[in-house]
Amino acid sequence: MMTNDNNNSGRNLWFLVVAASVSSLGGFLFGYDNIVISGAIEYLTKSFDLDAAGKGWAAGCALVGCLAGSAGSGWLADRIGLKKSLAICAVCFAGSSVGVFFCYSLNQFVIWRMLGGVGIGAASILAPMYIAEIAPARMRGRLVTLYQLGIVLGILGAVYVNMLIQQGGTEEWNQAVGWKWMFMAGIVPAVLFAVAIVAALESPRWLMKAGRVDEGREVLTRINGATIAKQETGSIRESLVAEEGRFSELFTSGFGRALFLGVVLAGLTQTSGITPVFSYLPSIFEAAGTKTGDAFFQSVLVSAINLVFTLVALWLVDKAGRRTLLLTGISIQVLAFSMVGLFYYMGGWPIGILVGVMAFVAGHAVGNGVVGWVILSEIFPTKLRGRAMSIATTSLWVFAFLGNLVFPVMQKAVGNHGAFWAFTFMAVVNLFFVIFLVPETKGHSLEDIAKIFLRKKGTR
After folding, report:
1. What is the pLDDT of residues 97-132, one digit of tens each?
2. What CA–CA distances, in Å, run from 293 to 65, 67, 268, 298?
3. Which domains, ranges and CATH numbers included, belong to the chain?
4. What is the C-alpha separation between 83 and 347, in angstroms, rounded?
5. Cβ-based neighbour number of residue 118 at 10 Å
6. pTM value?
7. Interatomic CA distance for residues 92 and 2, integer angstroms
8. How many other CB atoms sit within 10 Å of the CB of residue 195?
9. What is the Cα–Cα distance from 406 to 57, expressed in whole angstroms?
10. How far apart (Å, rounded) are the C-alpha atoms in residues 55 and 173?
Protein backbone atom coordinates (compact mmCIF):
# COMPACT_ATOMS: atom_id res chain seq x y z
CA MET A 1 0.00 0.00 0.00
CA MET A 2 3.00 2.32 0.37
CA THR A 3 4.13 4.29 -2.69
CA ASN A 4 7.72 5.37 -3.25
CA ASP A 5 7.87 7.60 -6.33
CA ASN A 6 9.13 11.17 -5.92
CA ASN A 7 5.71 12.78 -5.92
CA ASN A 8 4.09 10.24 -3.58
CA SER A 9 6.95 9.48 -1.17
CA GLY A 10 5.52 8.49 2.21
CA ARG A 11 1.99 8.07 0.92
CA ASN A 12 0.00 5.10 2.25
CA LEU A 13 -3.41 4.49 0.74
CA TRP A 14 -4.45 2.43 3.75
CA PHE A 15 -4.98 5.57 5.83
CA LEU A 16 -7.19 7.11 3.15
CA VAL A 17 -9.23 3.89 2.99
CA VAL A 18 -9.68 3.97 6.77
CA ALA A 19 -10.70 7.64 6.68
CA ALA A 20 -13.24 6.93 3.93
CA SER A 21 -14.54 3.97 5.96
CA VAL A 22 -15.03 6.15 9.04
CA SER A 23 -16.97 8.70 7.03
CA SER A 24 -19.04 6.05 5.24
CA LEU A 25 -19.91 4.17 8.44
CA GLY A 26 -20.85 7.47 10.08
CA GLY A 27 -23.20 8.04 7.15
CA PHE A 28 -24.54 4.48 7.39
CA LEU A 29 -25.44 4.95 11.05
CA PHE A 30 -26.96 8.34 10.24
CA GLY A 31 -29.19 6.70 7.62
CA TYR A 32 -30.06 3.62 9.66
CA ASP A 33 -30.86 5.32 12.97
CA ASN A 34 -32.77 8.14 11.29
CA ILE A 35 -34.98 5.95 9.07
CA VAL A 36 -35.43 2.75 11.11
CA ILE A 37 -38.44 4.52 12.65
CA SER A 38 -40.33 4.12 9.34
CA GLY A 39 -40.95 0.42 9.93
CA ALA A 40 -41.54 0.74 13.64
CA ILE A 41 -43.82 3.77 13.80
CA GLU A 42 -47.17 2.06 13.15
CA TYR A 43 -46.44 -0.75 15.62
CA LEU A 44 -45.20 1.47 18.42
CA THR A 45 -48.15 3.82 17.77
CA LYS A 46 -50.46 0.89 18.54
CA SER A 47 -48.24 -0.32 21.39
CA PHE A 48 -48.31 3.07 23.13
CA ASP A 49 -51.85 4.01 21.89
CA LEU A 50 -50.78 7.32 20.31
CA ASP A 51 -52.88 9.93 18.51
CA ALA A 52 -51.67 11.86 15.41
CA ALA A 53 -49.68 14.37 17.46
CA GLY A 54 -48.16 11.60 19.60
CA LYS A 55 -47.25 9.65 16.50
CA GLY A 56 -45.48 12.70 15.10
CA TRP A 57 -43.60 13.18 18.40
CA ALA A 58 -42.50 9.53 18.47
CA ALA A 59 -41.28 9.80 14.87
CA GLY A 60 -39.57 13.14 15.41
CA CYS A 61 -38.16 12.97 18.94
CA ALA A 62 -34.79 11.66 17.74
CA LEU A 63 -34.44 14.84 15.72
CA VAL A 64 -34.48 16.87 18.94
CA GLY A 65 -31.33 14.97 19.85
CA CYS A 66 -30.05 15.71 16.36
CA LEU A 67 -30.43 19.41 17.08
CA ALA A 68 -28.36 19.08 20.24
CA GLY A 69 -25.75 16.94 18.51
CA SER A 70 -25.36 19.25 15.56
CA ALA A 71 -25.31 22.38 17.72
CA GLY A 72 -22.60 21.08 20.04
CA SER A 73 -20.44 18.90 17.82
CA GLY A 74 -18.66 21.72 16.01
CA TRP A 75 -17.53 23.27 19.28
CA LEU A 76 -16.52 19.83 20.56
CA ALA A 77 -14.54 19.04 17.40
CA ASP A 78 -12.71 22.36 17.66
CA ARG A 79 -11.76 21.53 21.24
CA ILE A 80 -10.85 17.81 21.21
CA GLY A 81 -10.50 16.96 17.53
CA LEU A 82 -12.60 15.08 15.02
CA LYS A 83 -11.40 11.59 15.91
CA LYS A 84 -12.41 11.74 19.58
CA SER A 85 -15.67 13.48 18.70
CA LEU A 86 -16.58 10.71 16.26
CA ALA A 87 -15.85 8.14 18.98
CA ILE A 88 -18.48 9.82 21.16
CA CYS A 89 -20.94 9.44 18.26
CA ALA A 90 -20.26 5.70 18.20
CA VAL A 91 -21.14 5.46 21.91
CA CYS A 92 -24.42 7.33 21.30
CA PHE A 93 -25.42 5.01 18.45
CA ALA A 94 -24.70 1.83 20.39
CA GLY A 95 -26.33 3.07 23.59
CA SER A 96 -29.50 4.10 21.77
CA SER A 97 -29.90 0.72 20.05
CA VAL A 98 -29.64 -1.17 23.32
CA GLY A 99 -31.74 1.32 25.29
CA VAL A 100 -34.69 1.27 22.87
CA PHE A 101 -34.71 -2.52 22.89
CA PHE A 102 -35.20 -2.59 26.67
CA CYS A 103 -37.61 0.37 26.94
CA TYR A 104 -41.14 -0.21 28.27
CA SER A 105 -42.74 3.22 27.99
CA LEU A 106 -42.97 6.09 25.55
CA ASN A 107 -40.88 8.31 27.82
CA GLN A 108 -38.08 5.74 27.93
CA PHE A 109 -38.28 5.36 24.16
CA VAL A 110 -37.99 9.12 23.70
CA ILE A 111 -34.92 9.36 25.96
CA TRP A 112 -33.01 6.63 24.13
CA ARG A 113 -34.04 7.92 20.70
CA MET A 114 -32.80 11.37 21.67
CA LEU A 115 -29.44 9.86 22.62
CA GLY A 116 -29.26 8.25 19.20
CA GLY A 117 -30.29 11.58 17.73
CA VAL A 118 -27.30 13.24 19.38
CA GLY A 119 -25.10 10.75 17.53
CA ILE A 120 -26.95 11.34 14.25
CA GLY A 121 -26.75 15.12 14.53
CA ALA A 122 -23.08 15.12 15.50
CA ALA A 123 -22.14 12.61 12.79
CA SER A 124 -23.99 14.68 10.19
CA ILE A 125 -21.36 17.36 10.76
CA LEU A 126 -18.28 15.46 11.85
CA ALA A 127 -18.21 12.64 9.29
CA PRO A 128 -18.33 14.77 6.10
CA MET A 129 -16.08 17.40 7.70
CA TYR A 130 -13.55 14.71 8.63
CA ILE A 131 -13.24 13.27 5.13
CA ALA A 132 -13.26 16.74 3.55
CA GLU A 133 -10.34 17.84 5.74
CA ILE A 134 -8.27 14.69 5.17
CA ALA A 135 -8.99 13.89 1.49
CA PRO A 136 -6.77 15.06 -1.42
CA ALA A 137 -8.40 17.96 -3.30
CA ARG A 138 -8.66 15.98 -6.55
CA MET A 139 -10.72 13.29 -4.79
CA ARG A 140 -12.58 15.30 -2.18
CA GLY A 141 -15.92 15.48 -3.97
CA ARG A 142 -16.10 11.73 -4.52
CA LEU A 143 -14.88 10.88 -1.03
CA VAL A 144 -17.33 13.25 0.67
CA THR A 145 -20.01 11.67 -1.49
CA LEU A 146 -19.09 8.31 0.08
CA TYR A 147 -20.58 9.75 3.26
CA GLN A 148 -23.88 10.24 1.44
CA LEU A 149 -23.47 6.76 -0.04
CA GLY A 150 -23.17 5.50 3.51
CA ILE A 151 -26.39 7.31 4.40
CA VAL A 152 -28.37 5.70 1.58
CA LEU A 153 -26.90 2.27 2.36
CA GLY A 154 -27.99 2.83 5.96
CA ILE A 155 -31.48 3.78 4.79
CA LEU A 156 -31.61 0.71 2.55
CA GLY A 157 -30.32 -1.44 5.41
CA ALA A 158 -32.97 -0.04 7.76
CA VAL A 159 -35.94 -0.63 5.47
CA TYR A 160 -34.65 -4.07 4.48
CA VAL A 161 -34.16 -5.12 8.11
CA ASN A 162 -37.58 -3.66 8.89
CA MET A 163 -39.14 -5.76 6.13
CA LEU A 164 -37.44 -8.96 7.29
CA ILE A 165 -38.51 -8.42 10.89
CA GLN A 166 -42.05 -7.43 9.92
CA GLN A 167 -42.42 -10.56 7.81
CA GLY A 168 -40.86 -12.78 10.49
CA GLY A 169 -43.63 -12.49 13.05
CA THR A 170 -47.32 -11.98 13.58
CA GLU A 171 -49.03 -8.61 13.93
CA GLU A 172 -49.14 -9.12 17.71
CA TRP A 173 -45.43 -10.01 17.89
CA ASN A 174 -44.43 -6.99 15.80
CA GLN A 175 -46.50 -4.73 18.01
CA ALA A 176 -45.04 -6.19 21.21
CA VAL A 177 -41.34 -6.71 20.41
CA GLY A 178 -40.66 -6.89 16.67
CA TRP A 179 -40.28 -3.13 16.29
CA LYS A 180 -37.66 -3.14 19.06
CA TRP A 181 -35.49 -5.57 17.09
CA MET A 182 -35.52 -3.06 14.22
CA PHE A 183 -33.60 -0.65 16.45
CA MET A 184 -31.40 -3.30 18.09
CA ALA A 185 -29.95 -4.36 14.73
CA GLY A 186 -28.13 -1.00 14.62
CA ILE A 187 -25.63 -2.22 17.21
CA VAL A 188 -23.65 -4.05 14.50
CA PRO A 189 -22.64 -1.01 12.39
CA ALA A 190 -22.09 0.99 15.60
CA VAL A 191 -19.39 -1.46 16.71
CA LEU A 192 -17.76 -1.46 13.25
CA PHE A 193 -17.76 2.35 13.33
CA ALA A 194 -15.94 2.35 16.67
CA VAL A 195 -13.29 -0.08 15.38
CA ALA A 196 -12.65 2.08 12.29
CA ILE A 197 -12.24 5.20 14.42
CA VAL A 198 -9.52 3.52 16.49
CA ALA A 199 -7.48 2.89 13.31
CA ALA A 200 -8.07 6.37 11.83
CA LEU A 201 -5.76 9.40 11.67
CA GLU A 202 -6.71 12.78 13.11
CA SER A 203 -7.58 15.60 10.70
CA PRO A 204 -4.36 17.36 9.60
CA ARG A 205 -6.15 20.71 9.51
CA TRP A 206 -7.33 20.32 13.10
CA LEU A 207 -3.82 19.31 14.19
CA MET A 208 -2.30 22.38 12.56
CA LYS A 209 -5.02 24.61 13.95
CA ALA A 210 -4.16 23.22 17.40
CA GLY A 211 -0.51 24.12 16.89
CA ARG A 212 0.64 20.55 16.17
CA VAL A 213 2.11 21.42 12.79
CA ASP A 214 4.57 18.53 12.55
CA GLU A 215 1.83 15.99 13.26
CA GLY A 216 -0.42 17.63 10.70
CA ARG A 217 2.33 17.54 8.07
CA GLU A 218 2.93 13.86 8.83
CA VAL A 219 -0.75 13.04 8.27
CA LEU A 220 -0.73 14.99 4.99
CA THR A 221 2.35 13.05 3.90
CA ARG A 222 0.68 9.72 4.66
CA ILE A 223 -2.38 10.73 2.67
CA ASN A 224 -0.90 12.76 -0.23
CA GLY A 225 2.83 12.01 -0.36
CA ALA A 226 5.67 14.36 0.58
CA THR A 227 5.47 16.76 -2.39
CA ILE A 228 1.78 17.56 -2.13
CA ALA A 229 1.97 17.53 1.66
CA LYS A 230 4.54 20.34 1.57
CA GLN A 231 2.31 22.43 -0.70
CA GLU A 232 -0.80 21.71 1.39
CA THR A 233 1.00 22.57 4.63
CA GLY A 234 1.99 25.98 3.30
CA SER A 235 -1.52 26.67 2.01
CA ILE A 236 -3.16 25.65 5.29
CA ARG A 237 -0.75 27.71 7.40
CA GLU A 238 -1.33 30.74 5.18
CA SER A 239 -5.09 30.29 5.56
CA LEU A 240 -4.85 29.92 9.34
CA VAL A 241 -2.84 33.12 9.59
CA ALA A 242 -5.47 34.96 7.54
CA GLU A 243 -8.28 33.61 9.76
CA GLU A 244 -8.39 34.89 13.32
CA GLY A 245 -10.70 32.06 14.41
CA ARG A 246 -13.13 34.36 16.26
CA PHE A 247 -16.79 33.39 16.06
CA SER A 248 -17.60 36.93 14.93
CA GLU A 249 -15.66 36.27 11.71
CA LEU A 250 -18.59 34.16 10.50
CA PHE A 251 -20.68 37.31 10.33
CA THR A 252 -18.25 39.39 8.29
CA SER A 253 -19.10 40.27 4.68
CA GLY A 254 -17.22 37.30 3.23
CA PHE A 255 -17.72 34.49 5.68
CA GLY A 256 -21.19 35.80 6.55
CA ARG A 257 -22.19 35.08 2.97
CA ALA A 258 -20.91 31.51 3.34
CA LEU A 259 -22.82 31.09 6.62
CA PHE A 260 -26.04 32.41 5.08
CA LEU A 261 -25.67 30.08 2.12
CA GLY A 262 -24.95 27.08 4.35
CA VAL A 263 -27.84 27.70 6.76
CA VAL A 264 -30.44 28.25 4.04
CA LEU A 265 -29.21 25.47 1.76
CA ALA A 266 -29.19 22.98 4.66
CA GLY A 267 -32.73 23.95 5.62
CA LEU A 268 -34.01 23.76 2.05
CA THR A 269 -32.66 20.23 1.61
CA GLN A 270 -35.36 19.24 4.13
CA THR A 271 -38.33 21.48 3.37
CA SER A 272 -39.20 19.53 0.21
CA GLY A 273 -40.03 16.58 2.48
CA ILE A 274 -37.25 14.00 2.20
CA THR A 275 -37.10 13.13 5.93
CA PRO A 276 -40.89 12.73 6.39
CA VAL A 277 -41.03 10.64 3.23
CA PHE A 278 -38.47 8.15 4.52
CA SER A 279 -39.78 8.26 8.09
CA TYR A 280 -43.31 7.34 6.98
CA LEU A 281 -42.61 5.33 3.80
CA PRO A 282 -44.83 2.29 4.47
CA SER A 283 -47.60 4.57 5.78
CA ILE A 284 -47.47 6.69 2.61
CA PHE A 285 -48.00 3.64 0.43
CA GLU A 286 -50.69 2.19 2.71
CA ALA A 287 -52.57 5.51 2.41
CA ALA A 288 -52.71 4.89 -1.35
CA GLY A 289 -54.35 1.51 -0.83
CA THR A 290 -51.27 -0.75 -0.72
CA LYS A 291 -51.28 -3.74 1.65
CA THR A 292 -48.91 -3.60 4.63
CA GLY A 293 -46.51 -6.31 3.43
CA ASP A 294 -46.34 -4.77 -0.05
CA ALA A 295 -45.79 -1.31 1.46
CA PHE A 296 -42.69 -2.57 3.28
CA PHE A 297 -41.40 -4.13 0.05
CA GLN A 298 -42.04 -0.90 -1.87
CA SER A 299 -40.03 0.94 0.79
CA VAL A 300 -37.07 -1.29 -0.06
CA LEU A 301 -37.52 -0.46 -3.77
CA VAL A 302 -37.48 3.27 -3.00
CA SER A 303 -34.33 2.87 -0.92
CA ALA A 304 -32.68 0.88 -3.70
CA ILE A 305 -33.41 3.72 -6.13
CA ASN A 306 -31.85 6.08 -3.59
CA LEU A 307 -28.70 3.95 -3.66
CA VAL A 308 -28.54 3.73 -7.47
CA PHE A 309 -28.82 7.46 -8.00
CA THR A 310 -26.38 8.22 -5.19
CA LEU A 311 -23.87 6.12 -7.14
CA VAL A 312 -24.71 8.20 -10.22
CA ALA A 313 -24.01 11.37 -8.25
CA LEU A 314 -20.77 9.87 -6.91
CA TRP A 315 -19.65 9.38 -10.50
CA LEU A 316 -20.71 12.86 -11.63
CA VAL A 317 -19.97 15.17 -8.69
CA ASP A 318 -16.38 15.95 -9.72
CA LYS A 319 -17.28 15.94 -13.44
CA ALA A 320 -20.59 17.73 -13.91
CA GLY A 321 -20.10 20.10 -10.98
CA ARG A 322 -22.12 20.92 -7.88
CA ARG A 323 -24.59 23.44 -9.34
CA THR A 324 -25.55 21.30 -12.33
CA LEU A 325 -26.41 18.33 -10.14
CA LEU A 326 -28.33 20.48 -7.67
CA LEU A 327 -30.45 22.12 -10.36
CA THR A 328 -31.17 18.81 -12.09
CA GLY A 329 -32.07 16.96 -8.91
CA ILE A 330 -34.32 19.66 -7.47
CA SER A 331 -36.17 20.05 -10.79
CA ILE A 332 -36.94 16.33 -10.73
CA GLN A 333 -38.24 16.67 -7.16
CA VAL A 334 -40.60 19.48 -8.18
CA LEU A 335 -42.11 17.43 -11.00
CA ALA A 336 -42.30 14.21 -8.99
CA PHE A 337 -44.18 15.53 -5.94
CA SER A 338 -46.52 17.69 -7.99
CA MET A 339 -47.62 14.43 -9.67
CA VAL A 340 -47.81 12.51 -6.37
CA GLY A 341 -50.11 15.21 -5.00
CA LEU A 342 -52.25 14.95 -8.14
CA PHE A 343 -52.53 11.17 -7.86
CA TYR A 344 -53.67 11.44 -4.24
CA TYR A 345 -56.14 14.19 -5.20
CA MET A 346 -57.62 11.87 -7.84
CA GLY A 347 -58.28 9.19 -5.22
CA GLY A 348 -54.96 7.38 -4.97
CA TRP A 349 -53.14 5.45 -7.68
CA PRO A 350 -50.71 3.08 -5.91
CA ILE A 351 -48.38 2.47 -8.87
CA GLY A 352 -48.30 6.15 -9.85
CA ILE A 353 -47.56 7.19 -6.28
CA LEU A 354 -44.79 4.60 -6.00
CA VAL A 355 -43.17 5.83 -9.24
CA GLY A 356 -43.54 9.46 -8.14
CA VAL A 357 -41.91 8.82 -4.76
CA MET A 358 -39.11 6.89 -6.45
CA ALA A 359 -38.51 9.77 -8.86
CA PHE A 360 -38.50 12.28 -5.97
CA VAL A 361 -35.94 10.23 -4.05
CA ALA A 362 -33.80 9.87 -7.20
CA GLY A 363 -33.83 13.65 -7.62
CA HIS A 364 -32.86 14.16 -3.99
CA ALA A 365 -30.01 11.66 -4.30
CA VAL A 366 -28.57 13.36 -7.38
CA GLY A 367 -29.00 16.87 -5.99
CA ASN A 368 -29.49 17.86 -2.36
CA GLY A 369 -28.67 14.47 -0.92
CA VAL A 370 -25.15 14.36 -2.30
CA VAL A 371 -24.21 17.87 -3.31
CA GLY A 372 -25.74 19.58 -0.30
CA TRP A 373 -23.35 17.73 2.03
CA VAL A 374 -20.38 18.31 -0.28
CA ILE A 375 -20.99 22.07 -0.35
CA LEU A 376 -21.51 22.29 3.41
CA SER A 377 -18.19 20.53 3.98
CA GLU A 378 -16.36 22.90 1.62
CA ILE A 379 -17.51 26.49 2.05
CA PHE A 380 -16.36 27.42 5.56
CA PRO A 381 -12.89 28.60 6.70
CA THR A 382 -10.65 26.07 8.46
CA LYS A 383 -10.58 27.66 11.91
CA LEU A 384 -14.35 28.06 11.98
CA ARG A 385 -15.50 25.03 9.97
CA GLY A 386 -16.72 23.05 12.96
CA ARG A 387 -18.83 25.81 14.48
CA ALA A 388 -20.08 27.00 11.09
CA MET A 389 -21.18 23.50 10.08
CA SER A 390 -22.91 23.15 13.44
CA ILE A 391 -24.98 26.25 12.76
CA ALA A 392 -25.81 25.24 9.20
CA THR A 393 -26.63 21.62 10.01
CA THR A 394 -28.77 22.67 12.96
CA SER A 395 -30.97 24.39 10.38
CA LEU A 396 -31.26 21.05 8.56
CA TRP A 397 -32.36 19.25 11.72
CA VAL A 398 -34.84 21.95 12.69
CA PHE A 399 -36.70 21.48 9.42
CA ALA A 400 -36.32 17.69 9.49
CA PHE A 401 -37.87 17.64 12.98
CA LEU A 402 -40.72 19.94 11.94
CA GLY A 403 -41.36 17.81 8.88
CA ASN A 404 -41.67 14.61 10.91
CA LEU A 405 -43.72 16.32 13.59
CA VAL A 406 -46.31 17.96 11.34
CA PHE A 407 -46.61 15.44 8.48
CA PRO A 408 -49.30 13.29 10.19
CA VAL A 409 -51.12 16.48 11.18
CA MET A 410 -50.89 17.82 7.61
CA GLN A 411 -52.27 14.56 6.25
CA LYS A 412 -55.25 14.87 8.59
CA ALA A 413 -55.80 18.61 8.01
CA VAL A 414 -55.28 19.06 4.24
CA GLY A 415 -55.07 15.48 2.99
CA ASN A 416 -52.16 13.67 1.42
CA HIS A 417 -52.44 15.73 -1.76
CA GLY A 418 -52.18 19.01 0.17
CA ALA A 419 -49.14 17.79 2.11
CA PHE A 420 -47.27 16.80 -1.04
CA TRP A 421 -48.15 20.00 -2.87
CA ALA A 422 -46.77 21.97 0.10
CA PHE A 423 -43.51 20.05 -0.28
CA THR A 424 -43.55 20.81 -4.01
CA PHE A 425 -43.79 24.55 -3.34
CA MET A 426 -40.78 24.42 -1.05
CA ALA A 427 -38.80 22.52 -3.68
CA VAL A 428 -39.48 25.40 -6.08
CA VAL A 429 -38.09 27.83 -3.48
CA ASN A 430 -35.02 25.61 -3.19
CA LEU A 431 -34.56 25.65 -6.97
CA PHE A 432 -34.53 29.44 -7.21
CA PHE A 433 -32.15 29.74 -4.26
CA VAL A 434 -29.60 27.56 -6.03
CA ILE A 435 -30.04 29.40 -9.34
CA PHE A 436 -29.27 32.80 -7.86
CA LEU A 437 -26.98 32.21 -4.87
CA VAL A 438 -25.00 28.96 -4.92
CA PRO A 439 -21.49 29.19 -6.47
CA GLU A 440 -19.60 26.36 -8.19
CA THR A 441 -16.87 24.86 -5.98
CA LYS A 442 -15.75 21.93 -8.13
CA GLY A 443 -11.97 21.52 -8.43
CA HIS A 444 -11.03 24.15 -5.83
CA SER A 445 -9.02 23.50 -2.66
CA LEU A 446 -10.75 24.33 0.64
CA GLU A 447 -8.54 27.38 0.98
CA ASP A 448 -9.42 28.60 -2.54
CA ILE A 449 -13.13 28.13 -1.82
CA ALA A 450 -12.79 30.36 1.24
CA LYS A 451 -11.36 33.05 -1.04
CA ILE A 452 -14.46 32.80 -3.29
CA PHE A 453 -16.58 34.06 -0.41
CA LEU A 454 -14.15 36.87 0.36
CA ARG A 455 -14.67 38.33 -3.10
CA LYS A 456 -17.14 41.09 -3.65
CA LYS A 457 -20.76 40.10 -3.46
CA GLY A 458 -22.16 38.83 -6.74
CA THR A 459 -18.90 37.48 -8.21
CA ARG A 460 -18.22 33.82 -8.95
Report:
1. 999 999 988 999 999 999 999 998 898 888 888 888
2. 31, 33, 33, 9
3. 13-201+243-452 (1.20.1250.20)
4. 51
5. 27
6. 0.75
7. 35
8. 13
9. 9
10. 20
